[in-house]
Amino acid sequence: MGFKCGIVGLPNVGKSTLFNALTQSAAAQAANYPFCTIEPNVGDVPVPDPRLDKLAGIAASAQTIPTRLTFVDIAGLVRGASKGEGLGNQFLAHIREVDAIAYVLRCFEDPDVVHVDGKVDPIADAETIETELMLADLDSLERRIPALEKKIRGQDKDAKATLALLERAVAKLREGKPARFAIEDDDDRKAFQTLGLLTSKPVLYVCNVDEASAASGNALSNAVQQRADAEGAGCVVISAKIESELVDLDADERLAYLADLGLDEPGLNRMIREGYKLLDLLTYFTVGPKEARAWTIERGTRAPQAAGVIHTDFEKGFIRAETIAYDDYVGLGGESGARDAGKLRLEGKDYVVHDGDVLHFRFAN
Fold it and tell me: Is 8 exposed, middle or buried (0-12, 13-18, 19+ CB in 10 A)?
């Protein structure tokens, strides 16, 4: 699986510029006025992974196919969105459909770019976004309580469990904290997903800085990093302007340009790593003469379910997985070398796939 990450932020923070750069397209109209983006723009981007190219080279694969992730550029939020201000309900509905939320925060000064609140304060911007999402969640949950209480009076055990979960979320929201702060473990996380809450989704803070601050950040991005650390959220410093300029350069020009700025990779790479970390994802590979391909799954996924990402028939008819660790595949020169060295293992239905595994699935038709 890939994952779908919604890009949100106040108007004029560089959100659509970042989206255009990340997806290397002009799908989102970038302009210096509020509500430039109305309908959400969706872009699939390949996940850069040098391991895939290495595997393809060893196997002499005819083509390489990276795994992909989806970015959704969602309209700029304004104070009062939870009550229908700006694009209100439309904005909130689009957020419900994503797996994680990237808060794009303006961490640069520019008198030519109007800030909707008249001053640059990324922490205040983050709190505005969070407050609107929390208010929307609280309203949604409070509306559901009477119906659940009625079901409980009818001896509905599932309703009782749901209400207990809901009340924990409501308690946090009334304290002014996002619902994700009520999540205690993985089982909790799965249960909270059924509530469809905006503030239970993992958050990645994206600090949009000026070009001079792209390598080391600045005082504004440092404040956001401290907030992220305190919450256990992800955080990445990126310059949307730099990313937009990289789009028109070839590979060598990109490296030279990045080096001049003290960077060794595009911001997209950092966003992907933080996104993977945030959602606890990993990558496995299938490798052969026709293609070398990367696949994304959640950490903890067992072999049959990993096979099902390729095709449901693979999961239904799963027999076993021929498994080679990435380091063994590379170090021993490919599948035959790994087999000869006893590093090719046959794993069954209970095998938990590891990051970098090279897999070949055997299944019954």
Answer: buried
Q: Which structure tokens are listed for 197?
A: 């809450």
pTM greater than 0.90 (yes/no):
no
| Length of the chain measured in residues | 365
Please state the rounded mean pLDDT for residues 218-230. Answer: 96
Alpha-carbon distances, residue 271 vs 108, 169, 266, 280, 296 (angstroms):
19, 28, 9, 14, 16
For residue 92, count CB atoms less than 10 angstroms from its CB and return exposed for 0-12, middle for 13-18, buried for 19 or more: buried
Distances (CA, A) of 56 to 136, 233, 329: 47, 34, 11
Mean pLDDT, all residues of the chain: 85
Bridge-based pairing of strands 281-287 and 234-238 is unpaired
CA-to-CA distance for 275 and 272, rounded, in angstroms? 5
Say if CB 43 and CB 27 are below 8 A apart: yes
Q: Please report, for residues 123, 192, 257, the alpha-carbon distance to residue 254 in angstroms, rounded to integers and kept in the order given.
A: 32, 42, 5
pLDDT at residue 328 in the model: 98
8 A C-beta contact, residue 206 and residue 18: yes
Look-up of token digits 């309908």:
39
